[in-house]
Amino acid sequence: MEEKNELLFNELNEENLESMIYEIRGERVMLDFDLARIYGYTTKAFNQQIKNNIEKFPSDFMFQLTSIESDVLVMSKKMTSRKTTFFSGQTGGTRKLPNAFTEKGIYMLMTVLRGELAVKKRTGYV
Q: How is the chain split into domains, by residue range?
């Protein structure tokens, strides 16, 4: 797992990260499935960590997209040259609307996530 995380971390650059940032409700946010991928989690496991610590994520840290916001993002991604698709890699099951994390929420993730890469980032070893 560490090798996979290191590869993903090495692939991240300013352009890749910029393509994961959206402006929604007047906020620059990152979505749960992108953050999960960065930190080496499945989206389900990532969201479980959030659910277990939900009191640390008030509405100015995190919010769930509406179906209209989700549809707009799907359409905008299909119209651009971005390489990934909105629900790429997901098969079967219910697809929940993504959670969006503001800058404050992303900082809070560092205290909540227990994954190897998050711990490294928190302690400054990456």
A: 2-123
